[in-house]
Design a protein that fits this description.
The complex is a heterodimer.
Chain A: E1 3-8, E2 11-19, E3 25-29, E4 50-53, H1 71-85, E5 88-93, H2 95-106, E6 114-117, H3 141-149, H4 168-177, E7 181-184, H5 192-199, E8 203-205, H6 209-218
Parallel strand pairs in A: 3-4, 3-5, 5-6, 6-7, 7-8
Antiparallel strand pairs in A: 1-2, 2-4
Helix pairs in contact in A: 1-2, 2-4, 4-5
Chain B: E1 15-21, E2 24-31, E3 38-42, H1 55-59, E4 64-68, H2 84-98, E5 102-107, H3 109-120, E6 125-131, H4 146-161, H5 172-182, H6 188-198, E7 199-202, E8 205-208, H7 226-229, E9 237-242, H8 253-260, E10 266-271, H9 278-281, H10 283-294
Parallel strand pairs in B: 3-4, 3-5, 5-6, 6-9, 9-10
Antiparallel strand pairs in B: 1-2, 2-4, 7-8
Helix pairs in contact in B: 2-3, 5-6
The chains are: A alpha/beta, B alpha/beta.
Chain lengths: ~220, ~300
């Protein structure tokens, strides 16, 4: 269906409308190094409109000239996509789950529920930076070559996003503020911020994305 | 077009250099013998390479001095987004363009960044001078919850990146007064020189040259994470502050000493009678200090 263009400063973001319909919209936020293609046909069972964002430097969205990918950029992508849609339930996987959580706690008036799932970038740079870690955040020339050789799509500078810290103390006020959080779990290892969501008493769905979306939809 | 104002001791650059870093053109100005030991200098937020227009030529007696315009500042290119790691990437690329190990000198944001550049690329650095760039104060225990701060931050941030240009001022002096209000310790004649190079004039008036979309950042970051990372420094640091309280800095002495206690090889100096902009307020004293400390 239609692809909407959402401007974030000089960047044009692609927001793909997978299906229309009545009722609460679903906004999908993909993992690191993925795109809106990450989402399979199970999301189309959602009763209302379904829209999938390509974050900056991913999928059909523009690359950030100069390579400055970081927290503020990705969160603002998701926030502007939400502003475009109006009100929406969020579903995020991996990196997209972290930003979905922060947004669900920030825009409580427009996010009735939020489903978080596993995927690349879930852990980010860990709960806090290692002070003795002297690796540069922006990728070196070798890391850029290796990215291209790996056959990954998107901007090689998005590798900087692997360094973004995800501290549980930072997540906690957003967990407390969010209206409804649902965790879809695959039994894999989970980072400390995820454990903080669990500890808050969030609902947990072991059955995967389809089961998680069905649970979220039933509550609306 | 108004002619460039002159300032005592400020010398025009002898050479310029452009380094392309992640697709962005980084502009540098240079003074001194190209064969001499290189010194790379990096300015503070909203400043530019001419911050060092007096200090640089004084150091050029002995060194090849190269002052950087950070991305989005001065005569360097604008990027689609900004951030600390991207500035470090640019600085390391400038150092690589020099082709041999350099001394690094930075002020404020540039001081923090030369310190981090020395952490991640010690093979390119001999000695390090940080002028009052020791990070923001520790996070205060605020009453406003993060989600509310984040909502306000995102709203302000969206307005900022949607801003296409700065409001034009009728005269250069309008810009000078604006800067003077923020940094009342700085000399008006110096600011007239400095602001001329920070601005451009067109048919609508005078505009700042720096990118209007640049701004501050809110996220899961603690100022208290900065100092422990300095334990990874492998080059000697000279830490310089002014004696006088100013708009920014110096940090309260107990916090500054605690942060600097992580630096393995440290020398400290306080320049009497200077505020945050030590190199602009006291260029001759700063030059003597640096010529002495940087010479083996």
């Amino acid at each position: 269906m239609a692809t909407h263009t959402v401007k974030n400063g000089r960047i044009a973001l692609a927001l793909h409308e997978r299906k229309g319909g009545e009722g609460t919209a679903l906004l999908l936020l993909h993992p690191l190094y993925a795109s809106s293609d990450h989402w399979g046909p199970e999301v189309d069972a959602w009763p209302g409109p379904v829209l999938a964002l390509d974050f900056s430097g991913h999928g059909a969205s523009d690359r950030v000239r100069g390579g400055a990918y970081h927290y503020e950029r990705m969160l603002s992508d998701a926030d502007l996509a939400l502003r475009h849609v109006g009100t929406a339930a969020l579903a995020g996987a991996g990196m997209g789950a972290w930003y979905a959580l922060i947004l669900a706690g920030t825009r409580t008036d427009r996010v009735p529920a939020c489903l978080l799932g596993p995927g690349c970038g879930l852990e980010g740079g860990g709960p806090e930076p290692d002070p003795m870690d002297v690796r540069p955040v922006l990728p070196t020339a070798q890391a850029i070559e290796a990215f291209a050789a790996s056959g990954r799509a998107g901007d090689p500078y998005t590798q900087a996003l692997e360094h973004d810290p995800r501290p549980p103390w930072f997540a906690e006020p957003f967990i407390a503020a969010a209206r409804r959080l649902v965790l879809w779990e695959d039994g894999g290892e989970t980072p400390p911020w995820w454990d903080a969501v669990r500890a808050s008493g969030a609902e947990r769905v072991p059955g995967g994305l389809a089961a998680g979306l069905a649970l979220v939809a039933r509550g609306l | 077009m108004e002619r460039a104002p002159e300032h005592p001791g400020a010398r025009p650059p002898e050479r310029t250099r452009k380094v392309v870093s992640a697709g962005i053109e980084i502009h540098c100005i240079e003074w001194g013998d190209p064969e001499a030991q290189p010194v790379v200098m990096s300015h503070g937020m909203w400043d530019h390479a001419r911050s060092f227009a007096v200090l640089g030529p004084l150091l050029a007696e002995r060194f090849c001095v190269l002052a950087v315009d950070q991305r989005g500042h001065g005569d360097s290119g604008w990027a689609d987004a900004y951030g600390w790691p991207a500035d470090l990437h640019d600085l390391v690329n400038v150092m690589r363009s020099v082709g041999r190990p350099v001394h690094l000198v930075g002020h404020s944001k540039g001081g923090g960044q030369v310190t981090d550049a020395a952490r991640i690329a010690p093979e390119l650095v001999r000695k390090l001078v940080n002028i009052d760039g020791f990070g923001p104060p520790s996070e205060p225990e605020g009453d406003v919850p993060f989600p509310e701060l984040m909502a306000d931050f995102l709203d302000a941030r969206h307005r900022r990146v949607e801003r296409a240009a700065w409001r034009p001022y009728a005269s250069l002096d309008g810009l000078v007064e604006r800067r003077l209000a923020q940094n009342p310790r700085l000399d008006r004649r110096w600011l007239r020189f400095f602001t001329w190079h920070a601005a451009r004039q067109d048919s609508s008036g005078w505009h700042w040259k720096h990118d209007p979309t640049m701004g501050h950042f809110l996220g899961p970051f603690l100022p208290d994470w900065i100092a422990p990372s300095w334990a990874a420094l492998r080059v000697p640091m000279l830490a310089v502050v002014g004696s006088e309280p100013d708009t920014w800095g110096p940090l309260p002495e107990p916090l500054l000493s605690e942060r600097l206690s992580y630096v393995p090889d440290l020398e400290r100096v306080t320049v009497p009678g200077a505020g945050h902009f030590v190199h602009m307020e006291k260029p001759a004293e700063t030059a003597r200090l640096l010529l002495d400390w940087l010479s083996d």
